[in-house]
């Protein structure tokens, strides 16, 4: 099974109708309110324009592991220091992305490729003039060419949700700075303009004005086409919040499956089916849930009660995140799971680099010898298939597609490999996450 990230491809085109700047900002039109669907394309699928033919399956497995740990470190930085919706000083390493979102911005429209990140808050992209711009195509967005572009005033309430810096003398705009853990910085002006999307039937969905960071000073290690980042968590500046949708969902295919492909659903098109587990109540921008325990077949993995809860210091907890490749468990839980598996599966096993347990044999041998792993969420059981439990890192060597966090902050994450062939739904009004096992290639 190929393993690596996903990226979100949303073909987006602005309407040719001129929308005057006086149009009420962030008003979502009826098409968006009714819901829409976008395509998801796996980063390492041969149909992907980013597919690297020179990478082996081992390369992809190790790269995905490195990406998952980088993602964990980012989420640790933004959940343990402050879980407030008003704090967006993130530490993400940007080149470790999972999805790319394609959209059109402004009238006339400019094509933009942004890193879609369910753990990030701010939408930002490179804008001309740009002091330290990295090379990327298509061309950088030029706000001077958009009839609908406007800057956000420094006294606007939404300006308080970014890390503000001083503008040029006399400039009353909202200027911001956003810094990432690898040294990437974006400095610019908080702005608004018209965003548009294209659904799988090529129907244009214009969502009106959204707030974004127009970066005029970008120092980044991003590669290729990426022009910035699109935040998808529950922060007020994220895409999900600005769309004002109360529901969204996604269904991700197994990477080697050549079916209809993965998709994401917004608004009324979102699918909320199957078992449901409540989102934790509180001022959280990330998607925290309660994991009660883990089973291997009929045997419960021995774990202390409440091991996945957020503790009194605000650390720990369990996050559902489509931006992490492999599930990451706090070390005590991971080691106990590995011990339970080694006793339950009678095949030769060994460690392999970042992977704590790998079994030797054919895939059918592992399928018949290995019992299912079940995650017991509060109110819902989440059963993993063999395809989403193990990854073949070498010929005949199948590793558990989970990692140990080895972190003192105790955070655990359900990654996207384990979420494949589940329709995962987020109902932000009912404050639940749902899980429905389906064949996402034919859904």
Please, could you describe this protein's structure?
By secondary structure, this protein is an alpha+beta fold. Helices cover 13% and strands 33% of the residues. The two termini are 21 Å apart. A hairpin with a 2-residue loop joins strand 21 (373-377) and strand 22. It is elongated, with a radius of gyration of 22 Å. The protein has helices at residues 30-34, 57-80, 239-243, 331-344, 363-369, 416-419; strands at residues 6-9, 36-42, 99-105, 110-117, 124-126, 150-151, 175-179, 185-198, 204-219, 228-231, 247-251, 262-266, 275-278, 288-289, 291-296, 299-300, 318-320, 327-329, 349-352, 355-360, 373-377, 380-383, 390-394, 397-400, 402-404, 412-414, 422-427, 432-437. The strands form 6 sheets. It has a 7-stranded antiparallel β-sheet with strand order 1-2-12-11-27-28-13.
List descriptors.
443 residues, alpha+beta, six-stranded mixed barrel, 6 helices, 13% helix, 33% strand, disordered N terminus
**What structural class results from the helix and strand content?**
alpha+beta
Number of helices: 6
Distance between the termini: 21 Å
β-strand percent reads 25-35%
Q: What's the gyration radius in Å?
A: 22 Å
